[in-house]
C-alpha cells in the first residue's frame, strides 16, 4: 500500500500544502495538524500530542487501517534532543468503505506522544512530518509538517488526558486468560489463527492482527466467537514474496468491540 501512494503523495502535497503557523500545517480545509503541550513529568519525559482536525465527513486512519486505508507514517528525525518516542493510540472506529472495512478516526484525532529527551535539562524541539491518508468520497494522501518547541512548564492538557483515557484495555484489564497463535503455510505466506480466551468486548467484535514486523502485511481478519473464546484468522505475507519467520512474541492483536477495545501483545504457540 505504501509503495502505491508515495509517488502520488509528493504531487498532492506540493499542490495542496498551504503556509501555516510554525507548529502545524493544514491541507486546504480538509485537515489541520497542531502540536499541543502536556508539560514535562518528574521523570524528565514530555507529554505532548499531535492533533488532527478534520472537516465534517472526512476521516483518517489508525496504524493498522484495514484493506481500504492508508497507514500514517511519522518522521521525527529532524527533531532536537529527542531520544525516544512512544505513541498511545486511542481506540479507533470501524468504517464500512465500499464493502471493505477500514479502521480510523473522524472529526478529530488527538494522538498522545511521550518524548524521552536525550538530555532532560535541555529544551526539546519536535520537528518532523507525517504522511497520512484522508478520505471522504475519495482518498487523498497528505503530508503535514510540524515544528514546535515543547513547553516544559505546560499544565496538564484535558484533550491529551481524554485521549489517553480512550486507549484500549490491556489483556489483564480485559480479563484475557490466554492467546495462542497457530501458524500454517499458504501459497503466499502464512495463515495465522489466533484463539483468545476472553469475555466479550461487545457486539460484533473485530480482531486486528499485526505481524510485529513492518515489512510484513496481514490481510483483513475473519473473526468469530464461541462462548468465551474468540477466534481470528488472517494471512500474513511478505510483499517481496520471500520466505519469512513470524515471531509470535511480536504479534499484536487488537479486539474492537462496541463496549471497549483490547490490546494483546504476543501469543503462545497454538
Tell me about this structure.
- 9% of the residues lie in helices and 50% in strands.
- The protein is globular.
- It folds into two domains: 2-165, Immunoglobulin-like; 169-269, Immunoglobulin-like.
- Mean pLDDT is 89; it is low at 1-22.
- The chain has helices at residues 2-16, 158-165, and strands at residues 25-27, 31-40, 46-54, 59-66, 73-75, 82-87, 93-97, 100-106, 108-117, 125-135, 139-149, 169-170, 178-185, 189-197, 206-210, 217-218, 222-226, 229-237, 252-256, 261-265, 268-269.
- Residues 1-24 form the signal peptide.
- Keywords: Signal.
- It holds the Pfam family DsbD_N.
Main features:
Immunoglobulin-like, six-stranded mixed beta sheet, 50% strand, DsbDN, 2 domains, 270 residues, six-stranded antiparallel beta sheet, 9% helix, mainly beta, single chain, 21 strands, Thiol:disulfide interchange protein DsbD N-terminal domain-containing protein, signal, disordered N terminus
Mean pLDDT metric: 89
Structural class, by secondary structure, is: mainly beta
Instruction: Provide the CATH architecture of the largest domain.
Output: Sandwich
State the assembly state of the protein chains. Answer: single chain
Q: CATH H level of the largest domain: which superfamily?
A: Thiol:disulfide interchange protein DsbD, N-terminal domain
State the name of the first-level CATH class of the largest domain. Answer: Mainly Beta
Radius of gyration: 19 Å
What is the number of strand segments?
21
Shape: globular
Total number of helical segments?
A: 2
Distance between the termini: 30 Å
State the share of residues found in helices, binned by percent. Answer: under 10%
Total count of domains = 2
CATH third-tier fold name of the largest domain: Immunoglobulin-like
Q: Tell me what portion of residues adopts beta-strand conformation.
A: over 45%
Give the low-confidence spans: 1-22
Element-by-element helix/strand order: HEEEEEEEEEEEHEEEEEEEEEE
Largest sheet: 6 strands, antiparallel
Amino acid at each position: 500500500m505504501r509503495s502505491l501512494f508515495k509517488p502520488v503523495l509528493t504531487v498532492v502535497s506540493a499542490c495542496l500544502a498551504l503556509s501555516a503557523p510554525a507548529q502545524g500545517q493544514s491541507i486546504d480545509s480538509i485537515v489541520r495538524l497542531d502540536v499541543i503541550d502536556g508539560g514535562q513529568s518528574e521523570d524528565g519525559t514530555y507529554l505532548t500530542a499531535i492533533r488532527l482536525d478534520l472537516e465534517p465527513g472526512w476521516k483518517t486512519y489508525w496504524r493498522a487501517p484495514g484493506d481500504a486505508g492508508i497507514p500514517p507514517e511519522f518522521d521525527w528525525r529532524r527533531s532536537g534532543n529527542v531520544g525516544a518516542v512512544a505513541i498511545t493510540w486511542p481506540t479507533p472506529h470501524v468504517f464500512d468503505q465500499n464493502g471493505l472495512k477500514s479502521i480510523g478516526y473522524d472529526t478529530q484525532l488527538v494522538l498522545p506522544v511521550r518524548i524521552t529527551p536525550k538530555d532532560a535539562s535541555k529544551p526539546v524541539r519536535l520537528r518532523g512530518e507525517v504522511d497520512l491518508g484522508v478520505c471522504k468520497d475519495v482518498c487523498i494522501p497528505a503530508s503535514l509538517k510540524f515544528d514546535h518547541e515543547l513547553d516544559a512548564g505546560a499544565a496538564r492538557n484535558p484533550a491529551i488526558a481524554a485521549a489517553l483515557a480512550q486507549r484500549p484495555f490491556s489483556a489483564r484489564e480485559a480479563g484475557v486468560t490466554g492467546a495462542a497463535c497457530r501458524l500454517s503455510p499458504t501459497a503466499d505466506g502464512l495463515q495465522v489463527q489466533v484463539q483468545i480466551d476472553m469475555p466479550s468486548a461487545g457486539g460484533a467484535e473485530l480482531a486486528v492482527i499485526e505481524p510485529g514486523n513492518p515489512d510484513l502485511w496481514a490481510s483483513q481478519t475473519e473473526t468469530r466467537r464461541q462462548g468465551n473464546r474468540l477466534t481470528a484468522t488472517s494471512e500474513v505475507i511478505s510483499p517481496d514474496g520471500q520466505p519469512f519467520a513470524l515471531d509470535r512474541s511480536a504479534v499484536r492483536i487488537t479486539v474492537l468491540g462496541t463496549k471497549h477495545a483490547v490490546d494483546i501483545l504476543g501469543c503462545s504457540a497454538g
